[in-house]
């Protein structure tokens, strides 16, 4: 698979370094520590020297992100990005970085993230938040009790009403994610679960019980993108950025045209068009899954099945490592790790799968070969934003 060149660009762009920091239960680290761990490991994975990095993208930490993170890492970048659109941030940043590298504005861009979301709550350094705030347009909804999870739950109920999607179908997403996590040594939860266990769990926001919802963990990761000129000096096989797209939809539920359509319907179409591939050619899908419904509706909107057919599509093991469309092969946010804005983890897992570095969780095509194409699609807010990136070997 030869990398596609974007219209007007002169250089192809590859991912050459990926890594996780310590993840799961990390009580003795700061978010900055996790940023540094992930960055060092990604750089080591690439085989490049630190002084190659001239761009950094980071969000979610510090008053002047990514300036504070760059200083902590000892970097003085000439290109920065602090885009913050929730879980989709990292796919959007990857698109921005790829454009900058292709245009010659940077040569090597580090995307890095770290969070101690779980440890902070355990240590009472922070509390759970019911909403993102009550200023601006949100002031008209917050007084009515629209918590973050309630908005996802309302959207799921609408899909169930419109298309007959069942709780069992949604629960099967969580079951398959846990099965995939069983072969991932970095996953926080690896013991198998059943559909009945998902359905019988404590109610969080109707129709979501506990296991319909992502876990809360600590952790971080990093991804290094470089211009094609640097690939020959790298220690690992390059994974090429073939195409990317981004889209924002709404922030208030009253401005969301259709609860059953996510912004991935636009970002996915753009990414596939720019990559010159179709959903049917994708070997591995890494999809943001803060809740089971997110996986189901994003699969529809990316074009893996028709609108309304997500329920039947996710049944019968299709999302498993050896299923028809291996999805969230590391266990996803439902079982592996979810320290906050998880989108960067999607890119790490997609790259590892394409390189053949996923260990027991490695996906193989029907003929036994490694996957050629992967898609990573992040969602932010409550389906407010989406970024989709198509990657290929």
Can you put this structure into words, describing what you see?
The protein is 31% helix and 17% strand. With 393 residues, it is of the alpha/beta class. The strands form two sheets. The protein has a nine-stranded mixed beta sheet with strand order 3-2-4-7-1-8-11-10-9, with helices on both faces. Strands 5-6 form a two-stranded antiparallel sheet. β10 (373-380) and β11 (385-392) form a beta hairpin. The model is unreliable at 1-8 (pLDDT under 50).
Distance between the termini: 6 Å
Helix content: 25-40%
Q: What's the alpha carbon Rg, rounded to whole Å?
A: 19 Å
On the 0-100 scale, what is the average pLDDT? 94
Strand sequence of the main sheet, in spatial order? 3-2-4-7-1-8-11-10-9
Low-confidence stretches: 1-8
**Fraction of residues in β-strands:** 15-25%
Structural class of the helices, strands and pairings? alpha/beta
**Biggest β-sheet strands, sense, barrel:** 9 strands, mixed
Number of strands: 11
- Name the overall outline: globular
Give helix and strand order, one letter per element, not per position: EHEHEHEHHHHEEEEHEHHHHEE
* SS summary, helix count: 12
Quick tags:
31% helix, 393 residues, globular, 9-stranded mixed beta sheet, single chain, alpha/beta, 12 helices
Short recap of the structure:
By secondary structure, the chain is an alpha/beta fold. It has helices spanning 31-46, 67-72, 89-102, 117-122, 148-163, 167-181, 195-199, 264-275, 292-301, 310-314, 332-335, 343-355, and strands at residues 13-20, 55-57, 79-81, 108-115, 203-205, 208-209, 219-227, 239-248, 284-287, 373-380, 385-392. Strand 10 and strand 11 form a beta hairpin.
């Amino acid at each position: 698979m030869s990398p596609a060149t974007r219209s007007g660009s002169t250089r192809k762009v590859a991912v050459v370094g990926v890594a996780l920091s310590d993840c799961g239960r990390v009580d003795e680290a700061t978010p900055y520590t996790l940023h540094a761990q992930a960055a060092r490991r990604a750089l080591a994975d690439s085989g490049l020297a630190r002084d190659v990095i001239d761009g950094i993208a980071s969000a979610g930490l510090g008053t002047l992100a990514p300036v504070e993170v760059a200083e902590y890492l000892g970097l003085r970048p000439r290109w920065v990005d602090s885009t913050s659109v929730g879980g989709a941030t990292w796919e959007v940043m990857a698109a921005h970085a790829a454009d900058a590298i292709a245009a010659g504005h940077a040569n090597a861009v580090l995307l890095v993230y770290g969070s101690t979301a779980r440890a902070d709550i355990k240590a009472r350094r922070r509390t759970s938040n019911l909403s993102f705030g009550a200023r601006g347009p949100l002031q008209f909804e917050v007084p009515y009790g629209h918590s973050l999870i309630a908005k996802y739950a309302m959207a799921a109920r609408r899909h169930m009403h419109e298309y007959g999607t069942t709780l069992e179908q949604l629960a099967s997403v969580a079951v398959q994610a846990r099965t995939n996590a069983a072969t991932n040594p970095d996953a926080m939860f690896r013991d198998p679960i059943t559909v009945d266990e998902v359905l019988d769990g404590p109610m969080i926001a109707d129709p979501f019980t506990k296991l319909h919802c992502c876990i809360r963990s600590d952790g971080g990761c990093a991804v290094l993108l470089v211009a094609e000129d640097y690939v020959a000096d790298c220690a690992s096989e390059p994974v090429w950025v073939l195409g990317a797209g981004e889209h924002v939809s709404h922030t208030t539920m009253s401005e969301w045209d259709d609860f059953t359509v996510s912004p991935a319907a636009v970002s996915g179409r753009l990414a596939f068009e720019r990559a010159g591939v179709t959903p049917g050619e994708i070997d591995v899908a890494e999809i943001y899954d803060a809740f089971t419904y997110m996986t189901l509706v994003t699969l529809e909107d990316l074009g893996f099945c028709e609108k309304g057919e997500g329920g039947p599509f996710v049944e019968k093991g299709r999302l498993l490592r050896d299923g028809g469309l291996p999805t969230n092969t590391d266990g996803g946010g439902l079982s592996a790790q979810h320290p906050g804005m998880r989108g960067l983890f999607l890119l790490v897992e997609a790259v590892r799968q394409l390189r053949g570095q996923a260990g027991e969780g490695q996906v193989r095509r029907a003929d036994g070969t490694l996957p050629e194409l992967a898609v990573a699609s992040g969602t932010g807010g409550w389906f407010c934003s989406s970024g989709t990136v198509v990657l290929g070997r």
